[in-house]
Amino acid sequence: MRRVIVPAAAVLVSLVPAAPAPAQPPQKAPVAEGYGGAVATVDLDASRAAVSVLRKGGNAMDAAVAAGAVLGVTEPYSSGLAGGGFMVYYDARKRKVFTIDGRETAPRAMTATTLEGIPFEEGVTSGLSAGVPGTVANWDLALRRFGTISLAKALRPAIDVASKGFVVDQTFHDQTAANADRFKDFTSTAELYLPNGAPPPVGSVFRNPELAATYRELARRGPRWLYGGQLGKEIVATVKRPPVTPGSTRNVRPGLMELSDLRAYRALLREPTKVSYKGMDVYGMAPPSSGGSTVGEALNILEALPEVGLHEYLEASRLAFADRGAYVGDIPGVPLEQLLSDGFAKERACQIGDTAMAHPAAPGSPDGSYEPCPQPAGSAAPIASEGPETTHLVVADRWGNVVAYNLTIESTGGNGIVVPGRGVLLNNELTDFTFGPAPGDPNLPGPGKRPRSSMAPTLVFDHGRPVLAAGSPGGSTIITTVLQILVNRYEFGMSLPDALAAPRATQRNTEQTQAEQAFLAEHQAELGAKGHSFVLNPEIGAATALEFLGRGRIQAVAEPSRRGGGSAMVVKPARR
What we know:
InterPro entries: GGT_bact (IPR051792), GGT_lsub (IPR043138), GGT_peptidase (IPR000101), GGT_ssub_C (IPR043137), Ntn_hydrolases_N (IPR029055)
GO biological process, one term: glutathione catabolic process
Keywords: Acyltransferase, Glutathione biosynthesis, Hydrolase, Signal, Transferase, Zymogen
Shape: globular
Number of strands: 22
Family: Belongs to the gamma-glutamyltransferase family.
CATH architecture: 4-Layer Sandwich
Pathway: Sulfur metabolism; glutathione metabolism
CATH topology: Glutamine Phosphoribosylpyrophosphate, subunit 1, domain 1
CATH superfamily: Gamma-glutamyltranspeptidase, small (S) subunit
């Protein structure tokens, strides 16, 4: 029998000091339980939109798209119609999991060497970083294939919020302030997000009438208005000739996107990843996301171990990230079946001992021929820079359909450039590619290629029925956040709210493990004695999740404090 080492935080999580949360509206709650459907997002307006759709008879996919569109208004530095994302969806009638790849693509003019020699930050704030947007195509495919309402109807709540405005909270203010030096260098961005030359004050009402008008026109004209029509032309013009503020000294590189790239874009249905874990089935997103493969491999490694504690969690993550860097990208021949095989997991698990592995861990050989404990071969790839932002939402409806949806524009504030007159920030998704030179790297850029992502929307099933959905923002820490939530819930026996609230650490095959202050206070001495080295990361992830509690009851969970706290809601609250 495998022994589970339960960290002290699992039983004393309520005593762990948490970072002080900004003041929140009284209606915003991180946990809700009830019936008829549920939603968790980072934002009250988005959660309200989703619940409103559910109450009017819409299904989970309808609600997810409506919430995603509202997040483009209230979380514009993390999402928007000029971005992309991934959906993992359970269709209760068909009893099948589907995934939609709405990841941005590189223009056809991009090559493996396009980004070489460019400083990362200079690459971010440029037209060169903007990928062909996938979000609108994602919404369109999702609603046509799985929804019950039109895109025009799904956009109505977002149009309303953009027109009437929303109350600026501390997170929105701070994110604006952190981007102010970039934003002021673009006329359209400064006009929208730096009124009177400064970030909007906390408590003020922020309106985006240009975005409201853009959504209205999109509702009227449909996705082709973006993918080859007038909106597409304006996006291409902005990418190729960024509206730099006169007198700015910033070196803003023009991009490569053409209208033909937009016409060629397609959102894609892909097969999900799947692993068996503790008798349950865990579904995730396949490449070009590395979320499903890396979370799945780490779970397989943990299941192959005789005991599981925080040391094992960190080491399993280290090994899975070594394999991610070596094998996963938007390329033919990713050895996905072998990466997620029990044989490979056992081969990797035998590398884990009583002390931390030497840095960096080398990748394994997912070749189908597995030995008791071979020495890994090859060299580890460094972790590429990824923007820490993105957003995630979960929705379930009264029929049992479930959506886990990550959407993003990459870094906080994307590439910093608002399309003039449209109220939309462009993404900087192409900086998720490896800049190179890196011969053989599966994540080098290429024409039409989708950059590797860490987004990990995840669904867990027990005996064929969904029991949990989870996901998070956070760049490559998304993977470890989702993994740690699952470990907290199913290895350490925490409730789902405690599993999200517990302090986090992220090991991504790096020399030092990043950890939140509360994690360091609780576990640094114990894990340091095992050879782990730590560095502070003040905040890791901003997860949302839900769990089916039986007899139709659902628990929706968002962060209590990270990124200002999230908003969980249900259609019919349970009586206390």
